[in-house]
Design a protein that fits this description.
Number of strands: 10
Structural class: alpha+beta
Largest sheet: 6 strands, mixed
Distance between the termini: 23 Å
Radius of gyration: 19 Å
Strand order of the largest sheet: 1-2-8-7-4-5
Order of helices and strands: EHEEEEHEEEHHHHEEH
Length: about 190
């Protein structure tokens, strides 16, 4: 499930900003344990932290480029999972060349942190393809995807209008389109058909 960062409590937003996540939403994963280990690569390093619901906790960083023989931060060499009790959540990901962060928490903590929104919209096959293309492809490659799937310009425009009307895709004044958080969540709940 993806949640807009501005919909999270302010102390959680501050923690997310502290680990340098700049996206407009964050993926929230429901789990009881999480492994902090992250193998960084060229130009990135692992990030991990466990926090309470007030935002108290500490961020741990791995080595740039991942584990090496000269330094061994805990994020680079953790060999066991960490329990996530009620009232605690973890942030795990990387920063550097490739920035991403995921929020991990058990079911009760996730229910407190993340506002639940029912996005139950029936999509046609064409709408599903258009939504998938917006999530998975850069705009320059979408046209080829639509051509391969025999989606005409008229069908594409109808699907885009429907998706914009349902709040799954947003369109700016210039006509450029991008997927919304609700669009990501809807796409996760339906199967992609080729």
């Amino acid at each position: 499930m993806h949640v807009e960062i501005k919909a999270l409590p302010s102390h959680v937003q501050k923690v997310i900003t502290k680990v340098k996540h700049s996206g407009r939403d964050i993926e929230c994963v429901e789990c009881d344990t999480v492994n902090p280990e992250y193998y960084g690569n060229d130009g990135s390093r692992g990030v991990f932290g466990i926090f309470d619901l007030n935002g108290n906790g500490q961020v741990h960083y791995g080595s740039w480029g991942g584990p090496n023989m000269f330094s061994s931060p805990a994020v680079d060499k953790f060999d066991h999972d960490v329990n996530l009790p009620d009232g605690k959540f973890a942030l795990k990901g990387s920063n550097g060349n490739f920035n991403y962060i995921k929020l991990y928490a058990n079911a009760s903590t996730l229910a407190e942190l993340c506002p639940q929104k029912d996005v139950d919209i029936e999509l046609t096959n064409i709408e599903r393809e258009v939504l998938w293309a917006h999530k998975g492809l850069k705009s320059a490659y979408r046209k080829e995807h639509y051509y391969k799937h025999k989606i005409t310009a008229a069908q594409l425009e109808l699907a885009l209008d429907s998706l914009v009307g349902n709040g799954l895709i947003k369109r700016n004044k210039a006509g450029a389109t991008s997927i919304t958080t609700d669009g990501r969540n809807t796409l996760e709940s339906v199967c992609h058909t080729f």
